[in-house]
């Protein structure tokens, strides 16, 4: 894993330690490393309980709702909050190269929290005490005080919120084009206008929660051919050894064109592996005579 991605939180099971990759590499299998990102990324917020246990929230599409922005330590936005969770997380990494952006902070007001919820906080805005006391939720009556509590530059956040509120009322995001794509809009609030993804942040109390780029699965995996055979370091197939799913190096090579991008290739290459292992002619199921099919 590249140093920039090392140590980030993961939504994967702690017991999943890559044993299958260890077994495959022990017999000569090769890991494909030339990927844009080592995993499929998502911003994550974490609440730590007094007993040490942790609860995670994966900020998949909630960032598209009106009345919420993401800022770095300077109090500045760094990307379109409504974009895909993978691209949003990559934008955090990119912005962090020039300005502290990991962790970043999501910002909203009480009106947004009551209607949509805010991370682990459910819609309605009731019983906020435990979220505030354990530090998951930062609350303040002014934007400047919120910034100070979150260790964000107060004047920078104040200017950002003022500019964003003005843009939200016009329904146009001049900085990042929030709400301009079908993906943005479908995850916004269809009853809110003029932009379903943009609403002002102006009704106190104001809230912030810390987010970090995390992952929902791996992109890097075992190098394979078109029949899902695992390859050695000379590019030769290892007879009898196949990989698909997240064990196999993703055909997307660290990009994330849409949800389910691990499922489609998993089905396709699992099918191709089975055909190859049974010495099939690789003809699609639709053209194999029923008399030749076995179940």
CATH first level of the largest domain: Alpha Beta
Query: Helix segment count?
Result: 8
Instruction: Kindly give the count of domains.
Output: 2
**Outline, from the CA principal axes?**
elongated
Tell me the CATH architecture of the largest domain. Answer: Alpha-Beta Complex
Distance between the termini: 40 Å
Question: What does the radius of gyration come to?
Answer: 23 Å
Order of helices and strands: HEEEEHEHHEHHHEEEEH
CATH superfamily label of the largest domain:
Succinate dehydrogenase/fumarate reductase flavoprotein, catalytic domain
Largest sheet: 6 strands, antiparallel
Average pLDDT: 89
Number of strands: 10
> Which class best fits the helix and strand makeup?
alpha+beta
Low-confidence stretches: 285-295
- The CATH topology of the largest domain is Flavocytochrome C3, Chain A, domain 1
Helix percent band: 25-40%
Strand content: 15-25%
Could you provide a short overview of the structure?
By secondary structure, this protein is α+β, with helices and mostly antiparallel strands.
């Amino acid at each position: 894993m590249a140093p920039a991605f090392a140590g980030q939180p993961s939504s994967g099971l702690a017991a999943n330690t890559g044993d299958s990759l260890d077994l495959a590499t022990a017999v000569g299998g090769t890991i494909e490393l030339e990927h844009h990102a080592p995993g499929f990324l998502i911003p994550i917020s974490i609440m730590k309980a007094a007993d040490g246990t942790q609860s995670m929230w994966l900020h998949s599409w909630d960032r598209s709702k009106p009345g919420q922005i993401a800022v770095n330590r300077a109090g500045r936005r760094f990307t379109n909050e409504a974009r895909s969770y993978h691209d949003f997380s990559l934008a955090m990494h990119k912005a962090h190269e020039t300005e502290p952006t990991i962790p970043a902070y999501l910002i909203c007001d009480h009106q947004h929290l009551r209607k949509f919820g805010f991370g682990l906080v459910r819609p309605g805005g009731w019983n906020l005490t435990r979220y505030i006391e354990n530090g998951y939720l930062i609350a303040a009556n002014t934007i400047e005080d919120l910034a100070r509590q979150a260790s964000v530059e107060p004047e920078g956040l104040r200017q950002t919120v003022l500019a964003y509120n003005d843009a939200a009322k016009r329904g146009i995001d001049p900085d990042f084009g929030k709400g301009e794509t079908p993906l943005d809009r479908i995850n916004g609030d269809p009853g809110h206008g003029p932009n379903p993804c943009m609403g002002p942040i102006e009704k106190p109390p104001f809230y912030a929660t810390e987010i970090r780029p995390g992952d929902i699965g791996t992109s890097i995996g075992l190098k394979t051919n078109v029949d899902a055979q695992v390859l050695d370091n000379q590019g030769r197939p290892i007879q009898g050894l196949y990989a698909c799913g997240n064990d196999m190096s993703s055909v997307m090579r660290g990009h994330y064109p849409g949800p389910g991008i691990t499922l489609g290739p998993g089905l396709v290459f699992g099918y191709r592996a089975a055909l190859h292992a049974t010495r099939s002619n690789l003809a699609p199921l639709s053209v194999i005579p029923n008399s030749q099919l076995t179940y």
